[in-house]
Amino acid sequence: MAMIFRLLILLTLLIPAPLMAQQTNIVPRLVAEGPAPADGGKVELALVMETAPGWHGYWLNPGDAGLPLQASWDLPEGAELFELRYPTPVAFEGAGLINYVYKDTHAILATLTVPPTDRGVLRVSGDLRWLACTDKICVPEKGNVALAIPVGDGASRQTEFDEYRKRLPRPLAGDTSFEMAGDTVRIAVPLPASTPVGKPTLFLAENGIIDYAARQEFRRVGDQLVATLQRRGDQQTDALSGVIDIGEGQGLAFEASPGDVPTGGKLVGGLGMEAVLLAMLGALAGGLFLNLMPCVFPILAMKAMHLAKAGGREVEAKRDALGYTLGAVLGTAALGGLLLAIRAGGTAAGWAFQLQDPRTVFLLTLLAGAITMNLLGLFRLPVLAGEVKASGSVSTGALAALVATPCAGPFLGAALGTALILPVAGGIAVFAALGLGLAIPFLLIGFVPFLRERLPAPGPWMVKLQRWLAIPMGATLVGALWLLWRLTGDQGLLLALAALALLALLLWLSKRSVALGWTALAGVVALAVGGAILLPDRPSAENRAPDFAEVWSPAKVEAARAEGRPVFVYFTADWCLSCKANEKVAIDRDGTLEAFEAANVAVLVADWTDGDAEITRFLDARERAGVPLYLWYAPGAAEPEELPQILTPDMLVSRAQSFAR
């Protein structure tokens, strides 16, 4: 009955189709990555489906309703077109149905093999049928695509195709098993425990097996991610395949066979109110501990001194404490909301995400420098001035939230990690709790008379303490300079040091007169903006290589071979379970590394975690669908030896010892 109901809904959606037969809502076009090789070989094709705003097309399994793309190809004689490769879809709810769709323009890839030919061009065409839908109507559409592929020479669209390949799910190495029992289907996907998982979604390629609208449950069981799905009917199968989206648009493809699926484990992606409250408590405690960090403690101490200087009057103390709290809570909540928005856009980011941007680090360096100079008495930073005003208190709280982002402390990692996989409201609540924890000491001073009365009387000791407080804030400044150097190199560090010297001059001038103060303020703004613009580009990152290896590139392989050195290259990814197991058991161990050093082996690592385009092309050229891949280049050998996907230490040590010096 449920299936009949769904079909009736689909028919209802299709009723407007005849009225819209001339309207094209998804426009297909066929493109080739480059020319076809004259001596025969392969060329990559992309069927680009340009989708109008508000419309969507369907994955190979459309879900509750819809139709997948249907294609009939006309190929040159002797040519063969391999299976279409679809990007990771999204789940879409419409009319009470769950469908697997593409809401934007997307590309479906396929590999064309061609025989040797002396023809100038090869012509490929196809008749296509597809369904284009909005949340209200569906329109069956059709069209043809044609392409003339030059043979031998022609323009390359490699950059465009690299972007298309990034959106394809990456194949999982390792065995995936499933079992069907009663009304559930359980699938165990191999995934290292260290791989972060947001809110996963599993897309099953086989239609009619599961209830698409039912809740999917995921649990971590060691190095496996176990999905429990609601079964539809009693259909049996010997194989299942599909894609699991583990968050941030990262899809992993799997093929499963019947087998044992573990039970138990920790629930993933389905956090309830209890988890939200625990995360908020953790963030509260973490914010409290942040006050002891060198970047925050000076601000708190300065505000306490200013409160003591104001005489500890109850009304002013409470107003100042509430203003400071409001600024801290709004500051951390705003940073958290921005972080969640960035992650929702498909970019991986974490707490202190802004510190990955050298321009933000440059501005933070100037701010830390200004606070340090304020504590040394060079000038008075307005938000740390002695007057107790509501606006100044809010600004100080927001300032504390900003300078707290480089710091870490107890409870903070787990709490903020949970915030990133909660619904938006819950995540922002956790970040706001962090700001509240940051403000707790000042709230206590403002609202607890016993503590406020214990504030020491104003005196010369305040000036001495203020100078001492410059030490931890100066340490924060040094840390910001170090981070800027890591992000931009020597040129960026020299620019920041010059900017700090000019900043000190401008701030000193601001004390001379009101007119000079306004001039100095304009100079500081110009300095901040100009310095951020002039920062050099980030240097090439080598941070993906462990200490014993270098980042892989074909040029580095050739350079090492030209020196007569053996070369070991391992292709890996953070989400590859067998990769991580091999690294722990066979590669990153003392015996192996000592043998490599004795034989002068060049060790190169190719990290495919983010679908690096150059690595993808290399794997394609070797007809490998994924990682791990281990290559041993012996001196003088024409081709590398491809090692098994399951390594043992002896495999590597014995090869290295045969070339020991």
TrEMBL record:
TM region positions: 276-300, 321-342, 362-385, 397-422, 428-448, 468-485, 491-509, 516-535
Domain Thiol:disulfide interchange protein DsbD N-terminal, residue spans: 38-146
Name of the featured protein: Thioredoxin family protein
Organism expressing this protein natively: Sphingomicrobium clamense
Keyword set, alphabetical order: Membrane, Signal, Transmembrane, Transmembrane helix
Residues spanning the signal sequence: 1-21
Pfam families: DsbD_N, Thioredoxin_7
Keyword flag Zinc-finger: no
Keyword GTP-binding appears in the UniProt entry: no
